[in-house]
Design goal:
It is a single chain. The protein has two helices and seven strands. A hairpin with a 7-residue loop joins strand 2 and strand 3.
């Protein structure tokens, strides 16, 4: 299952703090379509019915079935540039 670093959890909490329903808000990672191999990240107010939910340190990530499979053994990290723009990075989990 996808894991979140402390940096990623903080970034997600910061992004969803101003959401209409922050208690259910999170980010959603979804596939672009069958066989495309690319994933998109967006803010979400709640999971879709088929989403896998990953929670860590008060942050939520919703994964569609394809994304859940692709990211099963990965870790999500986050950082900010000198202007404060947040970026997410997927890495292999530390074994």
């Amino acid at each position: 299952m996808l894991t979140l670093t402390a940096n990623a959890a903080q970034a997600i909490r910061d992004l969803t703090a101003s959401a209409p329903e922050p208690d259910q808000g999170g980010i959603r990672i979804s596939s672009q379509g069958e066989g495309s191999g690319s994933l998109t990240l967006s803010l979400a107010t709640q999971p879709e019915p088929s989403d896998e939910v990953v929670e860590a340190e008060g942050a939520r990530v919703y994964l569609d079935p394809v994304a859940a499979t692709v990211l099963e053994d990965k870790s999500l990290d986050a950082g900010a540039d000198d202007k404060g723009a947040v970026s997410f990075l997927v890495t292999d989990q530390n074994v």
